[in-house]
Amino acid sequence: MSFLRLQGLVKRFGDFVAVDDVSLEVEKGEFVSLLGPSGCGKTTTLQMIAGFEEPSEGRIFIDGKDITGVKASQRGIGIVFQSYALFPHMSVFQNVSFGLEMRKVPEAERKKRVMETLDLVHLGDFAQRFPRELSGGQQQRVALARALVIKPEVLLLDEPLSALDAKIREDMQIELRGIQRTVGTTTILVTHDQSEALSMSDRVAVMNEGRLVQVDMPYQAYEFPETPFVSSFLGKSNRFSGVVSGQSNGKLKVKVGELEFEAEAGRGPREGPVHLSVRPEKLLLTAPAEGRFTGRVHTRIFLGNHWVYQIDSPFGPLLASHHNAGIQSVAEGEEVGLTWAVEELRVLAPEEAGDG
Amino acid sequence: MSKNGPIALIFHTAFIVFMLAPLVVVCLVAFTSKGYISMPTEGFSLRWFRAILENPDFIDAFLMSLYLAIVSASIALAISVPASLAIARHRFPGRAAFTAFFLSPLMIPHVVLGVSFLRFFTEVGLSGTFVGLALSHVIIIMPYALRLVLASVTGLSRDAESAAVSLGASNWTVFRRITLPLIVPGIAGGWVLAFITSFDELTMTVFVASPSTITLPVRMYNHITETIDPLIASLSAALIFVTVIFMVILDRLYGLDKLLVGRGT
Amino acid sequence: MAEAIARRTLIPPYLLSAPALLLYCALLLTPMLMTFLLSFNSFDLYTGIKPDYSLANYLEVIQDKYFHVIFLRTFGMALVVTLICALLGAPEAYILNRMANPWKSLFLLAVLGPLLISVVVRTLGWALLFGKEGAINMTLMGLGLVDEPVKLIFTSTGVVIALVHVLVPFMVISVWASLQKLDPATERAGLSLGASQFTVLRRVVVPQVMPGVLSGSLIVFALTASAFATPAILGGRRLKVVATTAYDEYLNTLNWPLGAAIAILLLAANVIIITSYNRVIEKKYAEAFG
Does residue A262 sit in the same domain as residue A291? Predict the structure, then answer.
């Protein structure tokens, strides 16, 4: 039995369906990300779990109890808001202590728990400061401490890192994940940042236009996207459209223009028109004669740890990215062969039949 | 989440009734057909609106107020713009004191300003003149104009100006082509607020206006202290109509709350 | 880039502020100074103002019961009006802020709009409502709440009601401004931590909008203390306040020196109250709101 269960959640605003039949099961202690572009319904889903929006249809269960009609203040869910929503007129200590006061925890114990939680987020020395005296990263930790101190059954993180600088954001990703592991709270993270979702969660739930498109472990979702939307939203991918022309011992043959490629028959369609997708890091550059087809390097960009090439090919512009292995790379204007390992080519349903 | 409960809505309704009741009553009484203050129970009549036109001294006072408000608002803005540029763009000794000085009329009760101007104009021979009246209004409305212009200059990024300089524009060209167009909303808002403040001013003007420079609020005040009749109601109603139209336009252009936030002390 | 800007500051700031400075010196400083000096002169009914200097006018105001009553009434009214404005204006601003458009902007217009309408017109409205056969008495008697008309015109109750009407928009707008700075997520945070709606209001919202309430109170208090038109029209001859008293000394009794002393005292009281109030508030909120 899963710990947090969303069952057929629907949210309509007038004629607009913000969340369309979302069902999700989350295990106790699991870290799940709701990932999607803005307007995909992920925030509305979070608001419904928190109790700030009432679902038009469907139910929400925590630990087997139906909490759909329970008031936000009675749910015992910890939330870290995008803006942190710290109480500006209260000190760090008072902010963190607020939830315990509401639970009428005796003062001595309250003090102990607040300080323990502040130590957990490395802010023990900042208890008497006011929020505006703290950096963004520190405010973020206070918000986390405030949500965790009440020992919530579920922790909701609403784009918690989006207001931070890129460098601090990476550090916080690691720290947040570490803290979550330590306290073991079931956690839902809402984000539009795929790298954040992939790096922190046990599973990602990709949403688009109000629907859950794919729920999978980060590696699986990235390597085996089920729809063109997921393949392009999670990382970059090169896509060609083709038609399945035959099958032989578990492999599909797909005709793309003049050429024919072999691919593993995965979870995608096995006949008719399809999308082929290959990740930039899986698209290999070879000598012109050795590739499956040839292209010409249009632009080359050096990004420190890797190179990115934009290549003109018979199938339009393609992206390839390679580790900087310390050898001289191919120059702009050079002709190159392009190839991939057979198992890296994914066969997906074409756009129309996908998640439209 | 952001829904108001029933108690809140009852409170709100009562509040709105309280705010609008006196204005509605004025407008209703204005349409009476009787010769005395009463509700238009026996049909609406326009006789008291026609009566306004038969009272040239009200018309004259209205025109005087209009003229005065336009002149003094324009002078106030012409002075506020350079002063705002100095305060917002420069760090100089006395800057804080200048700002406080320019905003100080907000702290001074208008009755105190009134008696001071009366004494001053009598001494320098400006008593009862339009020049004196206009200058006294400039002092009263300057803080309002200054605050809005100052806000727009302060909020202005210098990058656009730097860009113009780098493209070879002279100082004057930068001001005329870049700075001025960017602060026009602040200037226009400041002018409108200054205009309204001048047009409505009573307490100070009561001391300074002479029979030849009497403004509409003073004329109406004098009338009310003698008698309250449907004529003054119809005049007030006409003012309310004009103000409401004006108000809706302002609200569309600037948002009334933004314009008025700086109105008090 | 910094050099380019430095080179642009050719017109010195003093030159830019010179017109304003000159105007203020000539038309604010000089008149105020003259009035200050005038307040020490003496006055004779037959010969007029005499250029001698004494504290006689101030002593008269300070010692005369007649003036005590007027000053106490004025500042007492200011206090009551401020309190009522805070109690009505702050909740109204909060309710308005929670409304959805178009209602929000419509009602905001209804609440703030009267600020643009002349005080004379608004006070006239109350004079019409307060009459023996005015709407208020007709309603009260129609409902059987009172048997005979309640006297509101020429009473301090009436003046207070009308002043609240005239000044409450300042409170609403001041609280409104501080509500715009309030992150609505803090209310949700309060709820998610287990606080009831009322507790969120008391512990999260009110403390955050308090600076708005306090600065609104200052505006309302200062403007009530120096209000002229409303007490003059609704208070009549007998219910005098400081501003109307100064007016009478100037334009009826013609005792300008005494009027000047009254005006100077009003100004001094206002300035003292405003600055000390500001100091207290700054101290209190410097920490959290800076």
Answer: no
Return the closest-CA partner of residue C184 out of B220, A47, B78.
Answer: A47
Chains adjacent to B (≥3 CB pairs closer than 8 angstroms): C
Most B CBs within 10 Å: which of C85, C106, C118, as the mutation test of the B interface? C118
Statement to judge: residues A67 and A129 lie in one domain: yes
Are B115 and C120 an interchain contact pair (Cβ–Cβ within 8 Å)? no
User: Nearest CA to CA, how far is B250 from chain C (Å)?
Assistant: 10
**Fold of the domain spanning B55-260:** MetI-like fold (1.10.3720)
DSSP A83-138: T----TTS-HHHHHHHHHHHTT--HHHHHHHHHHHHHHTT-GGGTTS-GGGS-HHH
Q: Where does chain B have alpha helices with state H?
A: 6-30, 47-53, 56-89, 95-103, 110-124, 130-154, 159-166, 171-174, 180-200, 205-208, 216-226, 230-254, 256-260
d(CA A35, CA C188): 22
For chain C, how many residues are written? 290
Number of compact structural domains in chain A: 3
A165 and A16: one domain?
yes
C109 and B251 in contact by Cβ < 8 A? yes
Quick: pLDDT tens for C26-54: 899 999 999 999 999 888 878 888 888 88
Q: Are residue A25 and residue A100 in the same domain, yes or no? A: yes
Strands C42-44 and A273-278: unpaired
Assigned token pair, C269: 């009281």
Is C246 buried (19+), middle (13-18) or exposed (0-12) by CB count in 10 A?
Answer: buried
Structure-token match 């009484």, residue found: B29
Q: Which B-chain residues 41-70 have CB contacts (< 8 A) with chain C?
A: none
Beta-carbon separation of C199 and A102 below 8 A = yes
Report how far apart, in Å, the C-alpha atoms of A204 and of each of A152, A277, B32, B212 are. 21, 20, 72, 81
ipTM over 0.90: no
Tokens of A178: 């570490």
Asked if C287 and A87 come within 8 Å (Cβ–Cβ), the reply is: no
Question: How far is the C-alpha of A241 from the C-alpha of A219, rounded, in Å?
Answer: 24
Using DSSP bridges, classify how beta strands A31-35 and A186-191 pair: parallel, antiparallel or unpaired: parallel
Contacts of C279 (CB under 8 A, 6+ apart): none
Q: Which chains touch A (3 or more CB pairs under 8 A)?
A: C
One digit per residue, the tens of pLDDT, for chain C of length 290 reads: 444 444 445 568 888 888 999 999 989 999 999 999 999 988 887 888 888 888 888 998 889 999 999 999 999 999 999 999 999 999 999 999 989 878 888 898 899 888 889 999 999 999 988 887 777 887 888 888 888 888 888 888 999 999 999 999 999 999 998 998 899 899 999 999 999 989 999 999 999 999 899 989 999 999 999 999 999 999 887 889 999 999 988 888 888 999 999 999 999 998 898 888 888 877 777 655 54
Please say whether the beta carbons of C213 and C225 come within 8 A.
no
- Domain that residue A127 falls in: 4-228
**For residues A187 and A29, what is the distance between their CA atoms, to the nearest angstrom?**
7
| C55-289 CATH | 1.10.3720.10
CB–CB of C135/B21 below 8 Å? yes
Q: Do A268 and A206 lie in a common domain?
A: no
For chain C, the structural domain boundaries read: 55-289
CB contact under 8 A, A98 and C193: yes
The SS3 of residue A67 is coil
A302: β partners: A307
- On chain B, the residues whose CB falls within 8 A of the CB of C240 are none
Beta-carbon separation of A146 and C193 below 8 A: yes
Amino acid at C129: L
* Boundaries of every domain in chain B: 55-260
Same domain as A221, residue A97:
yes
- B vs C: CB pairs below 8 A: 290
A206 and A268 in a single domain? The answer is: no
